[in-house]
């Protein structure tokens, strides 16, 4: 693809139109952590969580995972190997629910360091302006500031505006620790499929099901006792971190999520090859290709 960059970088966070979307259950409710709530309310509840944690999000991620989330994210991006050494060929990436930019930054660094690629671009999309603002501040300290390599958008993963995110546009779609917060996972997958080019890759890093029962017990004990306390001490916000732990338990198993990806039209590897567990299934990478 020829390198054509028409949008200005760092021209401010670009807003997208608001929308309503469908419930995940016939009775119009969905889960918000372990609570059942009207589906139309979940988006605002999730926004409240991330507005509340935005300024402490990066510190809390390190504290909760003892830095391990960095390894998961490194692994995720290195496995995707983004970038292209050919001059004049631009790889277009979209990082949805991109938050403070952990994945976008890794993608850009990987392309530059491994492929000498300074043309790859990432559109970073998140529903929460507070999280995006943290990301923008962070990018100001990097070499990507004021370059066309990164753009920020307020947007809903479940309905990406076709004007800003036309169909068949991206080579790589990433979503890390974001999809479980969305009210309708099928809607997110449908949009991912739409915006990817044929041959483009969908890649999701998400908390998942721990496969070893003994390890699962230890992990449960840690998550439910330590993480909300850390949230309370470091972020003065126990409830948001209680939600984050609960939301992990409500997310589908590796197998079920792989099937949802296939149902959205993506080609995946067969059986358990469709995903790669990290740390025994605490986190998991799913990929699919748009045919
Ligand atoms: C746990 S953070 C992950 C941030 C980043 N991807 C990372 O790995 O550090 C989840 C993000 O998903 C965003 N989010 C939640 N629901 C969303 C939606 N429907 N559309 C887009 N972003 C959403 C939140 O605002 C938050 O920034």
UniProtKB/TrEMBL annotation:
<dbReference type="GO" id="GO:0032259">
    <property type="term" value="P:methylation"/>
</dbReference>
<dbReference type="GO" id="GO:0031314">
    <property type="term" value="C:extrinsic component of mitochondrial inner membrane"/>
</dbReference>
<keyword id="KW-0489">Methyltransferase</keyword>
<feature type="binding site">
    <location>
        <position position="100"/>
    </location>
    <ligand>
        <name>S-adenosyl-L-methionine</name>
    </ligand>
</feature>
<keyword id="KW-0949">S-adenosyl-L-methionine</keyword>
<keyword id="KW-0472">Membrane</keyword>
<keyword id="KW-0496">Mitochondrion</keyword>
<protein>
    <recommendedName>
        <fullName>2-methoxy-6-polyprenyl-1,4-benzoquinol methylase, mitochondrial</fullName>
        <ecNumber>2.1.1.201</ecNumber>
    </recommendedName>
</protein>
<feature type="binding site">
    <location>
        <begin position="156"/>
        <end position="157"/>
    </location>
    <ligand>
        <name>S-adenosyl-L-methionine</name>
    </ligand>
</feature>
<keyword id="KW-0999">Mitochondrion inner membrane</keyword>
<dbReference type="Pfam" id="PF01209">
    <property type="entry name" value="Ubie_methyltran"/>
</dbReference>
<dbReference type="InterPro" id="IPR029063">
    <property type="entry name" value="SAM-dependent_MTases_sf"/>
</dbReference>
<dbReference type="GO" id="GO:0008425">
    <property type="term" value="F:2-methoxy-6-polyprenyl-1,4-benzoquinol methyltransferase activity"/>
</dbReference>
<keyword id="KW-0831">Ubiquinone biosynthesis</keyword>
<comment type="subunit">
    <text>Component of a multi-subunit COQ enzyme complex, composed of at least COQ3, COQ4, COQ5, COQ6, COQ7 and COQ9.</text>
</comment>
<feature type="binding site">
    <location>
        <position position="126"/>
    </location>
    <ligand>
        <name>S-adenosyl-L-methionine</name>
    </ligand>
</feature>
<dbReference type="InterPro" id="IPR023576">
    <property type="entry name" value="UbiE/COQ5_MeTrFase_CS"/>
</dbReference>
<keyword id="KW-0808">Transferase</keyword>
<comment type="pathway">
    <text>Cofactor biosynthesis; ubiquinone biosynthesis.</text>
</comment>
<comment type="similarity">
    <text>Belongs to the class I-like SAM-binding methyltransferase superfamily. MenG/UbiE family.</text>
</comment>
<comment type="function">
    <text>Methyltransferase required for the conversion of 2-polyprenyl-6-methoxy-1,4-benzoquinol (DDMQH2) to 2-polyprenyl-3-methyl-6-methoxy-1,4-benzoquinol (DMQH2).</text>
</comment>
<dbReference type="InterPro" id="IPR004033">
    <property type="entry name" value="UbiE/COQ5_MeTrFase"/>
</dbReference>
